[in-house]
Amino acid sequence: MNFFKRLPGFPRTPAGKERDVLRWLPRIALFGTVALAIPSLLARLITAPDETQAIMTTDIYVIGFIVLHWTVVVTVGIAAFIVMVMKGPAYVADAYPLQEEDTPDGPPTWTPHGR
What residues contact residue 23 under an 8 Å CB cut-off, 6+ apart? Predict the structure, then answer.
């Protein structure tokens, strides 16, 4: 099934920064996740084993920041994909029959001000 049917005669816009953004997103997601996990690992190495409250608090903050990071990465990816699709050629949607409104069969049923 072809989801994108190109409309002939429309030129493509040259690729811009959106392609670079889409290329960098997997690396940004991976390295950002690893960088954000470092405080949790350091909390386990530095704190004493009996200070579980500090470790748990650090873990909660790290998990929150990682989820926020992933959300930002997905949002930027969706935006870059939309820009890429919009810069491409024009696409044809599925055709559907239109009613002929220019040639009504009878007098109009609507009158201004209800008169």
Answer: none
Looking at beta carbons, which pairs linking 52-55 to residues 24 or more positions away fall under 8 Å?
none
- Joined together, the tokens standing for residue 49 give 């084993």
Chain segment 75-110, per-residue pLDDT in tens? 999 999 999 888 877 777 766 666 666 665 666 566
Domain extent at residue 80: 11-93
Q: pTM of this prediction?
A: 0.68
Cα distance between residue 63 and residue 61, in whole Å: 6
The answer to the question of residue 60 being in a domain is yes
Among 69, 86, 68, 81, smallest CA distance to 23 is for: 81
